[in-house]
Specification:
The complex is a heterodimer. Chain A contains five helices and four strands; from the N terminus they run H-H-H-H-H-E-E-E-E. Chain A has helices at about 5-10, 15-20, 25-35, 35-55, 65-125, and strands at about 180, 195-205, 220-225, 235-240. By secondary structure, chain B is mainly α. Classes of the chains: A alpha+beta, B mainly alpha. The interface of A and B includes residues 43, 47, 66, 73 and 74 of A.
Chain lengths: ~240, ~210
């Protein structure tokens, strides 16, 4: 056996363990003649003895650990079962909650929708009650007004206006439409833009000086007012 | 139970997760020794080794569903968990000074009461074991892992290579270098080891 063979022989610790106890004859023969290999083998034996002592020093597992692990297992299984069971029970409850939420949302939407409609209805002033036998205001045939709707008055009866976009914007810059009287100075600079015509009902006493020849029995007159985009009345025409 | 004995570790794990307690006990019996010894040799503490063993089986129950048999056996899966726990403990304990393990002292005191004639040999043996543990603990981690697995846990090279996910040749070379380092670190022990066998009252008188 050469030195290299001896080193490679000891490279495998399992073989060392098996053969050192048997005191291999070849190794013994070589280390007698080789001092370096003798020291090497001695170091290997001592190392192996140390490792064996360390290996044997491992304590045994305590019974309390076995009991603790088993308790952990049972606790884990129990916890998993308890977590699974309520989930199954919770499932219909969750569906009920979701359906309730959806129904509430739909109900809320409906309430908002109808209340908005109701608000529009209530906010709009009621139509002026015309006494029986009183003729409705005649439709205007004026060239600037294409659509006329029944006018509405506020409860105080002073002014109720309903905006109606004029089909053809009326420019009063140069001249007023026929039958209208100017309420303010208008030129091309101050009266720019489309005008709106509003049908109003007014007490005849409020329009002194513009009172038409014929007045309704209750003292109410009808008038068309041209309102600029700034909301200021530009001209008025008393319905005859 | 006879039917369970023939099952693989993977089958036992599946049955354990399916609330088969006997399967879990059998799997625990198969794996606990290796995990505990590995944790003990790595941490040099019985308390921490038991903590690691317990945590490994808790993790097996929690994460066992993610185990895939094609990636390795259950023992390797559990070893990976144990290795992570050992590292966690090492990080946790790094800030503290090492404390003598009380178990060795308890064993020594027990032997003093029961076998007073073996007192010198026991003391020297305990000292040798402690120094060997210290020497192993001072090795670089990749050497220490190999020494613990091959020399102390008595894994084969192939098993150690599988656990550490490296080649068998790597295990062999690392072990060789680790032995060289250990032999250098344990040189002062040689004189004491020779006294272990001869220690006794006669030795003292002579």
């Amino acid at each position: 056996m050469t030195c290299q063979e001896l080193h490679s022989y000891f490279a495998d610790p399992l073989r060392v363990d098996a053969d050192l106890s048997a005191n291999c004859a070849e190794v013994a023969e070589h280390i007698v003649a080789c001092a370096d290999c003798n020291r090497f083998v001695e170091a290997q034996r001592e190392l192996w003895t140390s490792l064996r002592l360390a290996r044997e020093s491992a304590p045994r597992l305590s019974a309390s650990l076995d009991a603790a692990v088993l308790a952990n297992y049972r606790g884990h299984i129990a916890a998993r079962e308890s977590s699974v069971t309520p989930a199954r029970r919770r499932r219909p409850l969750a569906v009920l909650r979701w359906s309730t939420a959806v129904a509430a949302a739909m109900l809320l939407t409906a309430i908002v929708f109808f209340s908005s409609r109701k608000t529009v209805t209530t906010e709009a002033p009621p139509r002026t009650a015309h006494p029986a036998g009183v003729p409705q205001p005649p439709e205007s045939n004026h060239a600037t007004v294409t659509a006329q709707r029944p006018s509405r008055t506020k409860p105080d009866g002073v002014l109720a206006r309903r905006k109606r976009p004029a089909s053809s914007p009326t420019n009063v810059g140069s001249s007023l439409p026929e039958g209208f009287r100017g309420l303010m100075y208008c030129d091309e600079l101050s009266c720019v833009g489309a005008m709106e015509m509003i049908r109003v009902q007014l007490p005849s006493s409020r329009v002194a000086g513009l009172t038409p020849a014929s007045t309704l029995p209750n003292g109410v007159i009808f008038a068309d007012v041209l309102v600029g985009p700034d909301g200021i009345a530009r001209s008025i025409r008393i319905e005859e | 139970m006879d039917r369970l004995e023939t099952r693989s570790d993977a089958g036992l794990l599946q049955l354990s997760l399916a609330r088969e307690e006997s399967a879990f006990l059998l799997l625990y019996g198969r794996l606990k020794g290796g995990i505990f010894r590995y944790a003990y040799y790595m941490t040099c503490s019985r308390t921490e080794a038991e903590e690691v063993t317990q945590e490994v089986f808790i993790s097996l129950l929690k994460e066992g569903g993610s185990y895939r048999e094609e990636l390795g056996d259950v023992a390797g899966f559990a070893f990976g968990i144990a290795r992570n726990f050992v590292r966690r403990i090492e990080r946790r304990e790094r800030a503290y000074q090492p404390f003598p393990d009380g178990d060795a002292l308890e064993d020594l005191s027990d032997s003093l009461v029961s076998q007073p004639e073996a007192l010198p040999g026991q003391m020297i043996r305990s000292e040798v074991v402690e120094r060997v543990h210290t020497a192993i603990a001072s090795l670089p981690d990749h050497y220490r892992q190999v020494v613990v697995l091959c020399d102390l846990c008595e894994f084969s090279y192939a098993e150690a290579a599988s656990r550490l996910q490296c080649a068998v040749g790597t295990i062999r070379s690392r072990l060789n270098r680790a032995h060289t380092l250990l032999a250098q670190k344990l040189k002062p022990l040689r004189s004491r080891q020779s006294d272990i066998g001869a220690a006794g009252t006669e030795g003292c008188l002579v």
